[in-house]
Amino acid sequence: MSVLRLIGRGTLLHVKQLSRSQFEIATALFVPLVQATLAVYLFRAGSEPHRLLEAAVGAGMMAVWSSVLFGSGGAIQNQRWQGTLEMLMLAPRPPALLVFPITLATAVTGTYAMIATLLWGGLVYRIPLDVADPLAFAVSVPAAILGLGMFGLLLASTFVLLPNANAINNTLEYPIWLVSGMLVPITVLPGWTGPIGAVLPTTWAARAVRESVTGSGPVWPSLGVCLALSFVCLVAGALVMSYVERRARANATLALA
């Protein structure tokens, strides 16, 4: 219970911090709407205008992924700039438990993106919000966000070792949502992208949410695979984070590592 309390309070704290950032607020407000608009016009111009709701949901998942990616990439760097990294590492808890609420907070703030894209599509473009399985949708969206938060811990721990994490963020954003099938169906992509997408939690998260909206398949198996892969990423991220912490302590370069 103490671990859950730590994660819950840490997530709430970092959500409040993100809500005080003008850059984060502006990005969270407008980027999902732009992505939703582009997705709607893309599907309208194609031969499948009946999939506009799926386009709006896909745009929401894209915005959640962007929030997790850039939030995870800057998780350690932001603490370093604020002068709180050393205090985090001195806390009597594993470093992964202290960084995970940061990555989870970025995913939680991404929930606005999903809500905003659906409302934007319904109010502006008159997309009928007919969800095939509302219960599965209400469960799959928070579960997918939790899974992406766990995936974010692995990204954050890996980016600590990379001096140009921001540049890598820009490189990873669009390829990941493409191979994950968030907006473009995986079936239209080259065959070699299939194995890459199959090992990404983002693929199964997007599939679970899409299946709950369209009723095109069973939601729970996809959601289970998403959470399983995310848990593997969580464990791997915790191991990498512990290794980085030990190396930084041994070299006395915590603020620079």
Automatic annotation (TrEMBL):
Protein name in UniProt: ABC-2 type transport system permease protein
Organism listed in the record: Asanoa ishikariensis
Alphabetical list of Pfam families matching this protein: ABC2_membrane (PF01061)
Organismal lineage: Bacteria, Bacillati, Actinomycetota, Actinomycetes, Micromonosporales
Transmembrane stretches, start-end: 21-43, 55-76, 97-123, 135-162, 174-200, 220-244
PANTHER family from the UniProt entry: ABC-TYPE MULTIDRUG TRANSPORT SYSTEM, PERMEASE COMPONENT, NODULATION PROTEIN J
Domain (ABC-2 type transporter transmembrane): residue spans on this chain: 15-211
Principal cellular location given in the protein's record: membrane
Record's keyword terms, sorted: Membrane, Transmembrane, Transmembrane helix
Signal peptide: none
Any one of the GO CC terms: membrane
UniProt superkingdom: Bacteria
GO MF annotation terms: ABC-type transporter activity
Cell location: Membrane
InterPro entries membership: ABC2_TM, Nod_factor_ABC_transporter
Membrane association type: Multi-pass membrane protein
